[in-house]
Amino acid sequence: MKTLTDLIDKLLQLLLIVLSTTIVACVTWQVFARYVLQSPSSVTEELARFLLIWIGLFGAAYAYRMGSHLGLDILTNRMKPVNKRAADLFSNLTVLFFAAYVMVLGGISLVALTMDPSQISASLEIKMGYIYSAVPISGGLISLFAIEKIYMRLTQPINTAEC
């Protein structure tokens, strides 16, 4: 499982680099077209908005994998290792529940809702379901990463010397 998540991690890094580079290019073109050419581009404005959605969702999955999400550890830093482990397991189980139930199942419902009576974006004229597909995909990634963290935490021995 570790090799699979490491591969997904590398692909996620590459995807975020491509998305970030593309949004910078879009916004740069938008500013140039608006102020120099006096003709703003609605296509790049909409594309930048959609890219920001994808960067936010896939960036959240990547941040969770790296353990760099914002967190308050003032309470857990004072806990004994056994209690810290229980708090970490509870935290990761909560993330797993939210990602699987809200993001994956809710995201699939959202995609289906916007694909069936075909909701089309104004400028790019693509189905909004494709844009919203980032929700269940990133939820699936977060779920996978949560399962890995839970497994690693359960198989890791408790350091009883600190108890």
From TrEMBL:
Q: Which domain of life is it from?
A: Bacteria
Against InterPro entries, the record matches this protein to: DctQ (IPR055348), TRAP_DctQ (IPR007387)
Q: How does it sit in the membrane?
A: Multi-pass membrane protein
Annotated signal sequence is none
Instruction: Keyword check for RNA-binding, yes or no.
Output: no
Q: What residue ranges are annotated as transmembrane?
A: 12-32, 47-65, 86-110, 130-147
Keywords, A to Z, come to: Cell inner membrane, Cell membrane, Membrane, Plasmid, Transmembrane, Transmembrane helix, Transport
One Pfam assignment: DctQ
- Where found in the cell? Cell inner membrane
Q: Where is the Tripartite ATP-independent periplasmic transporters DctQ component domain?
A: 23-154
Q: What does this protein do?
A: Part of the tripartite ATP-independent periplasmic (TRAP) transport system.
Quaternary structure, from the entry: The complex comprises the extracytoplasmic solute receptor protein and the two transmembrane proteins.
Family, per entry:
Belongs to the TRAP transporter small permease family.
By its UniProt entry, which PANTHER family does this protein fall under?
2,3-DIKETO-L-GULONATE TRAP TRANSPORTER SMALL PERMEASE PROTEIN YIAM
**Protein name according to UniProt:** TRAP transporter small permease protein
Q: Which organism is it from?
A: Catenovulum adriaticum
